[in-house]
Amino acid sequence: SLGLCTFLDSFIPRLIIASNNENTHNCLESIHNDLKALRGGISERLLKPEIDKRRDKRDERKPPNDFRKISILPTREDIFYEPFLRKNLRSGSYENLDHYLDVQFRLLREDCIAQLRNGIYEFIEAKTVLGHREVRRLQDAKLYKNVFVVSKESSLDGPLYELLLDSHQVSHIRWEKSKRLLYGSLLCLSPDDFSTLYFAVIENADREKIKQEGKIKVSMRRGKGQSEIPLNSPMTMVESSAYFEAYRHVLKSLQTMTEEDTPFKRYIVHGNKDLRTPKYFERSESIEFDLGPIIN
Prior knowledge:
Elements: H1 2-18, H2 22-54, H3 76-80, H4 97-130, E1 141-153, E2 160-164, H5 167-171, E3 186-190, E4 198-204, H6 207-213, E5 215-221, E6 235-240, H7 244-256, H8 265-268, H9 292-295
Antiparallel strand pairs: 1-2, 1-6, 2-5, 3-4, 3-6, 4-5
Helix pairs in contact: 1-2, 4-7
């Protein structure tokens, strides 16, 4: 039964993408949601004993690189290769602060990148299944066709690129209420169905300008040895459903944390369970707390 559910779970999304009828599309989505819930229940019953047995087994693998030097923006390797991840410890202690920070950084970064990767994979799979037919939508990301890089300008933080969106698609979106293309959103552009990848972050997304002119400004990071993104060439663009700006600053902070500025490391890193009295309680002078605002 689990094998059948797994097969259907991978097959039904293809039918959803290929469907042009709204009622059929909604029916297939409902079936897919019910199927995922059924598959989850079966998996939990079958795998729970084995998962419980392995849960506390320590992962002795060493990271392949220094997490402090990893790019916050994704790279091609993040999309097409399996990431190095270790589980958050549920018991015991970490080897040291860097061990703890490495685990948290990679897990959080994966949470940020996974939706974009899923969207790109979904597009590639749909193109493979549909052949020359047009891919119209994605489940895990937002899809934009016929996007053009129309200009490049300099700024204090590096070059900015202006993107021109397809006017037909722009006219069908209610930008006043839409969560699409917000400042800080993560994008991936490609001129060749995601064989070549250009990652970008939105730096200016004025809603009126998008609505009237279909233009946004982005910063972009080229991969090592990668050529400049071509101007005035049609691109396919995928927008991640995970809001990159909310992740970016936390990831950067994790990369810069040190022994001196990490709070509670005695407990969260070394796993000590004996709680010490806060230092402000150890002072000899009398301390009074005004709890009036809470009562009133």
